[in-house]
Amino acid sequence: MSRVKDVTTSRMQNYLDFRNDPLAFFMKMQNGGEVVSLRTGLQPSFIVNSPDFVREILVAKDASFKKGRTDKVLRRTIHNGLLTAEKHDHKRQKSYYQPIFYKERLNSYAKTIVEETKSLVTSLQDVEYCKLNDEMMQLTLAIIARVMFATNVEENKKQLADAVSDTIEQTAQTLFTPIIVPLAIPTKGNKIHKKAINKLEDMIYCILHDAKQHPDQYKMTMVGMLLDTQNDTGSAIDDEEIRDQMMTMLLAGHETSANLLTWIFYALNQNPDVEQKLYEEIKMIDLEQSPFELYSKLNYTQLVIKEALRMYPPAWLIYRESEEAVELLGETFKAGSTFMICSYAIHRNEKVFPEPEKFKPERFADKKGEDVPKFAYLPFGGGSRSCIGSKFAIMETTLILAILVKEYKFKVEQETVTPDPLVSLRIKEGLKVKVEKR
Fold it and tell me: Coiled coil: which residue ranges (predicted)?
């Protein structure tokens, strides 16, 4: 008996449902079978719900796949960075990225995270209301600029954060439309996109120029490491490739963390018992002394983060396209088949996560988390393309969360909150909160 089931609705209905509400569409398809065929004809498309098939695609048969459509769209901004590189290029780039996240560097990054978050604590002292998503975007941008680029963006971090936001929004719109309009065509969306790219590139090339003039100041940063790295021929990496990696870090290295933090504060507001338990854990901790050593001891804080990553995974959708005919668990798929893995829906499988719509950090406590099938929970992807910065992301989120919860309560001021599945999972229209000092 085939483990691939055909969808019962029409292609047009599926497309309209997907465009109208992607998350609801994937949730509806979750009950359609382990792998659901969308019956799209010459270029078959499938939704993958089974952890077993996810493992086959991301790990066991990884060499048979490429990122496909997402790669084409992201390349408009990133070009050939770690997020978009394929095969040999990806392996090569990953090898020189890895030292950026070694333990001794994370130790240094932790201090910067604390400093920047303390600065936000000070700036919120006289604020009654704020858009928390904007504050988180600017905070994580300031952090990534300092730890990766040794650059202070205090003066123009809002403009840079807006440029990242515009880039993400335009990328998502392109990703979910049938035809990719070349960036050179002056549509309204393309004009916004190109303006945002130019803004980010201005900063990148300014940093790169300064790093070449003052290499000692950048020695412990990503820019400094890339300037010292050689390619396959023994030559220095060119400026264009360094630009691509810096653009990758700007787009993938802070927007996802900002969205996750925003969702966590929303969840805490909805679950005051969880917030109180979190506060009890962190209220006596002084993270300024040795933040790297202390963050891993905040056990309940990290359970909260794990649960937020389950319910609101920033990387909510993974695309893969088969480059050749491939057999997965006895099922054969033709070359050019597209597979969509929606972690948002997979994380809501009630057979794996009872009461999936409830925010319950304890589900990951003690041995409980070990009962979860490995690819039923994949907030950072899996296989060779899993997120290389996952440890940094967890550390950053833990420290920011601990510092802010210790000082403030953020009360959500809006009646409804709607997920906005762009490249990363946002809250539509942001999150307006009342800022209350503890």
Answer: none
Report the pLDDT value the prediction gives residue 433, as an integer from 0 to 100.
98
Binding residue ranges for heme: 387
| CB proximity list for 333: less than 8 A, separation 6 or greater | 44, 46, 322, 325, 326, 327
Largest distance between two CA atoms of the chain: 65
Binding residues, as ranges, are: 387
Give the pLDDT score at 179. 83
* Element holding 426 (H helix, E strand): strand 425-427
pLDDT at 40 over 70: yes
Which ranges in 156-271 belong to alpha helices (H)?
A: 157-175, 188-213, 222-228, 239-252, 255-270
DSSP conformation class of 238? P
| CATH topology classification for 1-79+316-347 | 3.30.43
Residue 26 class from Cβ within 10 Å (0-12 exposed, 13-18 middle, 19+ buried)? buried
Torsion from C-alpha of 110, 115, 117, 119, nearest 10 degrees = -170
Query: Average of pLDDT values for 1-6?
Result: 91
184-213 pLDDT, tens digit each: 999 999 999 999 999 999 999 999 999 999
Q: How many helices (H) and strands (E) does the chain have?
A: 17, 13
For residue 411, the 8-state DSSP code is E
Closest CA to 407 of 290, 265, 289: 265
Averaged confidence pLDDT in the chain: 93
Cα 246 from Cα 253, distance rounded (Å): 10
Structure pTM?
0.95
Please answer whether residues 226 and 81 qualify as being in contact, where contact means their C-beta atoms are separated by less than 8 angstroms.
no
Q: Which parts of 150-187 fold into alpha helices (H)?
A: 157-175
Q: Give the C-alpha separation, 400 to 258, whole Å.
A: 10
Orientation angle between helical segments 239-252 and 255-270, nearest 10 degrees? 10
Rg (CA), the chain: 22
